[in-house]
Amino acid sequence: MTEKALCRVKKPGLFTTIQDAGRTGWQKKGIPPAGVMDEYAFKMANFLVGNEGQEAVLEITMLGPVLRFTQAAVMAVTGGDLQPLLNNKKTEMWHSFLVKEGDELSFAGVKSGARAYIAVQGGFAGNEVLGSKSTYTKAGIGGMEGRALQADDILTGLSPLSELKRCAWLESTLIPSYRQKTLLRVTEGPEADAFSRDGLYTFYTRSFRVANESDRMGCRLQGPPVAHVKQADILSDAVDFGTIQVAADGCPMILMADRQTTGGYTRIASVIQVDLPKAAQLLPGHEVTFQKVSVARAHYLLKEQRKQLASIALASMNML
Amino acid sequence: MEPLRINMLSDRALRVEFGTTISAQTNQWIRAFCWELEKKKYGGIKEWVPAYTAVTLYYDPANLSLQELEQLVYAACASIENDNMPAPSSVTIPVCYGGEFGPDLEKVAEHNQLTVEQVVWLHTEGEYLIYMMGFMPGFPYLGGLNEKIATPRLATPRSHVPAGSVGIANAQTGIYPLESPGGWNLIGRTPESLFQPEKEDPVILEAGTVLRFKAISKQEYWEMEKQKEGAHESNDRS
After folding, report:
1. Does the pLDDT value for residue A138 go beyond 70?
2. Which residue of chain B comes nearest to A267, CA vs CA?
3. Is B163 on the interface with A (CB under 8 A)?
C-alpha cells in the first residue's frame, strides 16, 4: 500500500480527529474503544467513496477545519450539516466528489447536527495502536500522534484514487435529519430498580437539555432530577456506548465513544445501537426524550438496519 | 456452577452476575468464567469485561441471538469446575515512597497516628488482589489495603497527578497509569509503566493477579527510569 501526502491542515477546526471503528478487545484492561461517534455517517462516508472496509475518516466537531489538498482525491462528507465548501463554494453532503491539487475544503458552520465525517478513497493514514487508528486523546494514542489535528499537520492517504469515474450519492430517505428535539430509544438498565416510580416516570416522560460540558466521553443532560430510592453509587461495573448513568444529583449522562470502560453510578437505561448516531449528533441546548423498547425490538431494528447497509454497500461497489 | 443472575447492560452487552459484594470468592468465579471464555473462543462474542461482581459480554446481536449467547454462558459456567485453571499470577511493583513522589505520605501517617515508616511498612506488607481493571487504561482496582492506613480523599483534587503515582483514597489503594487529575493521597511513585500502548500487550496487570508493593530508594527509582528510557530508544531504533 502506498501512502501519499493528501492535504495540509490550514486550520484545525474545533476538535478534528482521525477515527475508525475503534479498538476491540482491550476494555478488560481499561482501554476504551474510542472510534467514531456516529457509526452510520461513518459507514456511509466510506461507501460513498467506494471503500470496502471501514477505513479511517476525519471526525469534525461543530467548527470544521480548512484543508488544502496537495493531491487529487475522491472524497465525501456525511453526518451533521456543517456546510462544507469547496474553494468557497457550497458542496453537497452525502455525495462523492473529486478534489484537485490546490483545492481548499472548508466549512461554513453548523446548520444541523454536531459532527461531520470526511472520508477519502483509500482511507486516511494514521498511527495504528492496538488494532485501530482511532484517536484517544486522554491516553494520547492513535490517529495523528494521539491528538486532535493542529495547523500545518500533513494528512496522508492510503493509495488514494485520483479519478472519479462516477459520482455516488445517497437517496434522500437514507439521509438522517438532525433536529433540536430528539427521541432516543433505550433498553432498561441493570439498576432501573434503584429509581423511584416518580424518578422513572420523570425519565421516560420529561425532556432533558444537553449541557455544555458534553464531549466524546459523555453527553451530560440537565432537567428535572431523576430521583433514586436506593443509593446512586454502585460497585464499579462495565458500561457501554449509550449507557445512561444517573449520579446522586439526578442528572442523566449518556456515555459515548471515549467513555471509561467501567463506571460507579446507577445505570437507568442504555440507548439502543441504531439510535446511537442520533445521540452523537446532539449539540448543547438540544432537547432529548427517552422511550423504552424491548431488547427483542432493539435487535429487530438492528437487523433491519444491517440489511439496508448491506444493500447500500453492494450498490456502492457496483457504482464505482 | 450457576451464575446468580443474567441481565442486559445494553442491547448488545450481557451481564453475568456471580455475587453482590466485593469478595475474593466471587473474584475467583469470575476469573474461572473468563478463563472458560478465553479457552473456548466462542464466535460472536467480541470481548468481555470482568468487574467486582459480574462479567459483561459484548456481542453482535445481528450475528448471535440472545438465546444462543445465554446457552454459551450456561455451558461455560457448567464446565468451570472440571478444568484446571492456571494459578493466579503475581507481580511486584517497586515504589519510591515519600518526598516529591509522595507529597501526602506524612498526612496519611498523621491521620492514622502512625510514623511514615509504619505507613510504608503496612503498605508494602500487604497482598493486594486485582479485582478489576477500569477507570483509565491500565488502572487496577485493588483490594486488601490495611485499614490502619485508610485515609479520606483530598478535599480539593489535584489538577495534575503524574503517571506512576501510588495513592490511597479511603480504604482503597491504587496506581495512576497516566497523568490525570485526581483526589487520592499520593504516598509514592513507581517507575514501572502500567500502560505501554506500543507493546503487543500494553498492560501488564489483569483482573485476578496478586500485586505487592516493594519500597525502593530514590536512586533505584532513577536507575529504573533511565533503563526504561534506554529501552525506549532501542525500540525506536529497531
Report:
1. yes
2. B9
3. no
pLDDT band at B237 (very low <50, low <70, confident <90, very high): very low
Please state the φ and ψ torsions of residue B176, each to the nearest 5 degrees. Answer: -85, 115
Q: In the A/B pair of chains, how many CB contacts fall below 8 A? A: 143
Question: What CA–CA distance (Å, rounded) separates A42 from A20?
Answer: 8
Q: Which domains does chain B have, with CATH numbers?
A: 5-78 (3.30.1360.40), 90-237 (2.40.100.10)
How confident is the model at residue A35, as a pLDDT?
98
Q: Please give the domain boundaries of chain A with CATH numbers for all domains.
A: 3-176 (no CATH), 181-300 (2.40.100.10)
Contact B8 A138 (CB under 8 A): no
- Rounded to the nearest 5°, which phi and psi values hold at B129? -95, 130
CB contact under 8 A, A240 and B50: no
Q: Does B31 touch chain A (CB under 8 A)?
A: no
* Residue A316 binned pLDDT confidence (cut-offs 50, 70, 90): confident
Quick check: B40 pLDDT over 90?
no
- CB crowding A241-262: b at 16 or more within 10 Å, else e: bbbbbbbeebbbbbbbbbbbbb
Closest partner residue to A30 (CB to CB) among B12, B21, B135 is B135
